[in-house]
Design a protein that fits this description.
ADH-like_C; 7-stranded mixed beta sheet; binds zinc ion; globular; alpha/beta; EC 1.1.1.284; 2 domains; Quinone Oxidoreductase, Chain A, domain 1; 11 helices; zinc; binds ligand AHE; binds nicotinamide-adenine-dinucleotide; Rossmann fold; S-(hydroxymethyl)glutathione dehydrogenase
Length: 375
């Protein structure tokens, strides 16, 4: 197959708010600096649903979504030294070129190299797509497009992992779990003895709980409007629960009252700007730090009284938990293999790839943390 176009199955998003359509697509060979990957397993993250629902200002259609996956390198383009055919890999939507201004800074995990291309649904070389259906180009998504049996990614956007790793599990290390763990360990740098509030107990929020517990947080308050999440969340480290629907006061007030003035750290894992405000305002005066993880819809803006910041609260945000992807994703895989981090526990469902729309329904329905699709 090397050097040739591959014809395979992919789930095409033809337009916002339409079910995905699993059909035959053509995947062109990788060009210089690119890698073609056979995706074996992909999960569905809320960001895929958000984009499919037409809420992403960068969302382009038709496209192939998907960004939390694992697979095996099928072929590489000219000049690629990072990986070779047969390597087990995790595609990384947050690239790491190790050369740009961002990569050379230890203050960020963002990479500037391929971002202009990935934001426009194309590959950097020629600013074109490698996917087509009957000759019509289909856009890439987040530089990963893992809802396809084969995808083409930039070589700087693929992490080579331990060949002993089970791909049907560690595909989750492509987004949600690293995001939650890293938000705690890299962005907030939660200390032992801290109090924490987590808004939204999906896979991201529960990874925050796991990270906070590992960091030695003594009180971890889970906030969700779906009480079905509470029992589950205990296994990930949550010690107390708050359902905003059961309180008439603003939820920040409820948490401030529960914690003698507020939490040391809070995390917004929903993508709701009102909740982002609550998450900031439930932080303790003088030092409380709130981290925005959730992705808000196009046009939404955050607000609070500046006095909240004047009096020492800090508002932060994180992408992929601050992890430098190509360097640190393989380290997270090792941590999983050494049983130092949970992954299996986040997999609530497994489905064949053909049932991808059912996977989206499960996520929307609130019963699924992560559904792994088997390609
Ligand atoms: P999810 O859908 O599995 O979980 C969201 C949770 O929020 C659910 O349990 C839901 O019941 C709860 N929720 C919804 N509305 C709520 C409200 N008003 N108050 C309290 N809880 C509420 O989603 P996920 O996959 O865990 O992703 C969470 C968010 O993180 C999404 O916005 C996603 O786009 C974003 N995300 C960001 C990054 C990043 O790098 N910054 C990475 C991954 C995901
Ligand atoms: N494109 C959107 C924002 C989407 C967004 O913020 N994506 C996160 C990852 S979510 C993974 O589930 C991210 O990494 N952002 C940093 C980046 O470089 O995209 C918008 O609002 O335009
Ligand atoms: Zn994601």
């Amino acid at each position: 197959t090397e050097g040739k176009t591959i014809t395979c199955r992919a789930a095409v998003a033809w337009g916002p708010n339409k079910p995905l359509s699993v059909e035959t697509v053509e995947v062109a060979p990788p060009q210089a600096g690119e890698v073609r990957v056979k995706i074996t397993h992909t999960a569905i993250c809320h960001t895929d649903a958000y984009t499919l629902d037409g809420m992403d200002p960068e969302g382009l259609f038709p496209c192939i979504l998907g960004h939390e996956a694992a697979g095996i390198v099928e072929s590489v383009g000219e000049g690629v030294t990072e990986v070779q055919p047969g390597d087990k890999v995790i595609p990384c939507y947050q690239a790491e070129c190790r050369e740009c201004k961002f990569c050379r800074s230890n203050k960020t995990n963002l990479c500037g190299k391929v971002r202009p291309a990935t934001g426009n649904g194309v590959m950097l070389n020629d600013m074109k797509s490698r996917f087509s259906v009957n000759g019509k180009p289909i856009y890439h998504f987040m530089g990963t497009s893992t809802f396809s049996e084969y995808t083409v990614v930039h070589a700087v956007s693929v992490a080579k992992i331990n060949p002993a790793a089970p791909l049907e599990k560690i595909c989750l290390l492509g987004c949600g779990i690293p995001t939650g763990l890293g938000a705690v360990w890299n962005t907030a740098k939660v200390e032992s003895g801290s109090t924490v509030a987590i808004f939204g107990l999906g896979a991201v929020g529960l990874a925050v709980a796991e990270g906070a517990k590992a960091a030695g947080a003594t009180e971890i308050i889970g906030v969700d409007i779906n009480p079905a999440k509470f029992e589950l969340a205990k296994n990930f480290g949550c010690t107390k629960f708050v359902n905003p629907k059961e309180h008439k006061e603003p939820i920040q007030q409820v948490i401030v009252d529960m914690t003698d003035g507020g939490v040391d750290y809070s995390f917004e894992c929903v993508g709701n700007v009102d909740l982002m405000r609550s998450a900031l305002e439930c932080c303790h005066k003088g030092w409380g730090t709130s981290v925005i993880i959730g992705v808000a819809a196009s046009g939404k803006e955050i607000s609070t009284r500046p006095f909240q910041l004047v009096t020492g609260r800090v508002w932060k945000g994180t992408a992929f938990g601050g992890f430098k992807s190509r360097t640190q994703v393989p380290e997270l895989v090792e941590k999983y293999l050494n049983k130092e981090i949970k992954v299996d526990e986040f997999i609530t469902h497994n489905l064949p790839f053909s049932k991808i729309n059912e996977g989206f329904e499960l996520l929307h329905g609130g019963t699924s943390l992560r559904c792994v699709l088997h390609l």
